[in-house]
Amino acid sequence: MLIPCPLCGPRDLREFTPKGAAVTVDRPAADAAPEVWHDYLHLRDNPAGPSRELWWHGVGCGAWLVVDRDTVTHEVTSVVLAGEVAAE
Amino acid sequence: MRYSALQILKQGLSGNRGWGRAWRKPEPKPDYDVIVIGGGGHGLATAYYLAAEHGITNVAVLEKGYLGGGNVGRNTTIVRANYGLPGNSEFYSHSLKLWEGMEQALNYNVMHSQRGIINLFHSDGQRDAAARRGNAMRNQGDDAILLDRDACREMLPYLDYEQSRFPIHGGLYHPRGGTARHDAVAWGLARGADRLGVDLLENCEVTGIDIEGGAVTGVQTTRGAIRARKVAIVVAGRSSQVAAMAGMRLPIESHVLQAFVTEGLKPVIDHVVTYGMGHFYISQSDKGGLVFGGDLDFYPSYAARGNLPMVEHVMEAGMTLMPMIGRARLLRSWGGIMDMSPDGSPIIDTTHIDGLFLNCGWCYGGFKAVPGSGHCMAHLIATGRPHVAAAKFRLDRFETGVGLMDEEGTGAQHNLH
C-alpha cells in the first residue's frame, strides 16, 4: 500500500502509523457532555468501504494526514494535511 | 448417524457410500423463538448450547455465506486459558473446560490437542510479568509452570538461545493449552445444533432488523422476512454493519490480522510457542504445516488480506527466534477481519432494544472462546441474565469506565491493541 503524502509524494506503508477513524480532527470541547466524549473516544462508524482516517507520517515528514481510503479494496483516494482539515 | 470406530469399519466395508449429510439444508420457517445472525464458531456454539442446555430448539442460524467461512476457518487454531485479569480469567477458564468435553458432547473429532503453550520471556521484567500471570492462572484453577532457560532448552532445543539482542530467559508453560482443527469445530457444532433441531440457513444475508416499540420483532433477509422475539448478533468483524441496522454504533473497529502456513514437514514443533520480543506465535498442524501469525496490520480493513510490511515483520521475528524455519517454504497466507474493542476484551450483553443481544469484540482471540462464548451467550438469551463467567463483558463499560479489561495495559482506546 502506497500513501501519497502531500509533502513527500507516494511513500511506502512502512513510513506511516495509522490512528483509525479521523474523529480526532473534530475534538469535543473540554466541557462537552460525557455522552459526547464517550462517542468521540469509543464509538465508531467502522465502515466497510470508503473511510476517513488519520495517519501519521512518522518516518517521513512527521505530518498528520487525513486519508480517504477504502477499507475493502485498500485504495487510497485522497490525502490532505490534518491541519488543513482542522482549519476548515 | 452416530460417528464411531465401528461406523468407520462398517462404512469402509460398504465402499463409504452410506455417509449422509452432516446437517440438513432446511427452508426458512416464517418464525423462530431465537434467530442467531452469524454462522461462525460463536454463532453455531450459541445455537448449539441454546438447544443442548436450555431446550430452545426452535432456533435459526442465519449465515450470509457458508457455515464456518469466516474467522473460525481463518485463525491459527490456538486454544488456551492464560489470561490474567478478573473477567477474562474466569471466562477463558470456563471456555477451556468446555473444550475439554466438546468432542464427547458433539460426537465429533475436533482434533483438540492439548500439546501445551510456552510463552517465552527475554528479560527480568518479562519474567516477573510471566510469574504474575502464571499465579493469576493458578488462582483461577488453571495450570501454569514457570520454566527457566534450561527447562526451555530441554523442551524447545531448536530455539536460538544465544542471540545477543533478545536472549531467552525462560517461558511460562500452560500444559492444557494447545490447538484444535478449526474447520472441524464449526462442522461439529453445526452438526450438533442441527441434530437438536436448529435450522442452519446458509446464503441467507440479513438486510434489516425489524424493531417495533423498542422491541425486536424479526429480521429481513435475502431469503425473505423471518420473525423472532429474540435476535442475537454474532458476526465478529461485521458487527458494526449489522448493529447499524438496529440504529446502533458500536465501540468496534475492524482490522486485518494475517496468518501463514508452510508446506507440510515432519514433526518438528511439538507445542505452541510464542515469542516475547516480536509478535510471533507458531504451532505445527497435524498435517505438518507450520502455522504462524503475528500482529495486526493496524489499519481498519475488511479486505481479509494484509500488506507486506507485516509479512516481513512476522518472518523476521520467526527467523530471530528459530532460525531453522528459514528453509521451510511458505505455502499460503491469509487475513481475517477482527472486531477490535477499545480495551481488547469482548462484549456479551443485552442492548437497549428488547430482545436484541450482542456478542462481539473478540479482537484477535475469538477461536479459543468459541464454546465459552456460545455457552454464555445462550445463557443470556435463554434466561435474560448474564452467565457468571461472562458477567463482566458489558457493553456499557466504555461509557462508565467501570470494569475495563485492558489485558495488555496499554489503555482502553482504539488503535492501542
Automatic annotation (TrEMBL), chain A:
Any Pfam family the entry gives: SoxD
Official protein name in the record: Sarcosine oxidase subunit delta
Signal peptide as annotated in the record: none
Gene Ontology MF terms in the entry: sarcosine oxidase activity
GO biological process, one term: tetrahydrofolate metabolic process
UniProtKB/TrEMBL annotation, chain B:
InterPro entries, A to Z: FAD-dep_OxRdtase, FAD/NAD-bd_sf, Rhodanese-like_dom, SoxB
Enzyme class: oxidoreductase
Gene Ontology molecular-function annotations: nucleotide binding; sarcosine oxidase activity
Similarity field: Belongs to the SoxB family.
Chief location category: cytoplasm
Species this protein is from: Aliiruegeria haliotis
NCBIfam families noted in UniProt: soxB
Cofactor(s) required for function per UniProt: FAD; FMN
PROSITE patterns given in the database record: RHODANESE_3
Pfam family of the protein (one): DAO
Protein's GO biological process: tetrahydrofolate metabolic process
UniProt-recorded name of the protein: Sarcosine oxidase subunit beta
Catalytic activity: sarcosine + (6S)-5,6,7,8-tetrahydrofolate + O2 = (6R)-5,10-methylene-5,6,7,8-tetrahydrofolate + glycine + H2O2; sarcosine + O2 + H2O = formaldehyde + glycine + H2O2
Limits of the Rhodanese domain: 34-78
Enzyme Commission identifier(s): 1.5.3.24
Location(s) in or outside the cell: Cytoplasm
Domain of life: Bacteria
Record keywords: Cytoplasm, FAD, Flavoprotein, FMN, Nucleotide-binding, Oxidoreductase
GO terms for cellular component: cytoplasm
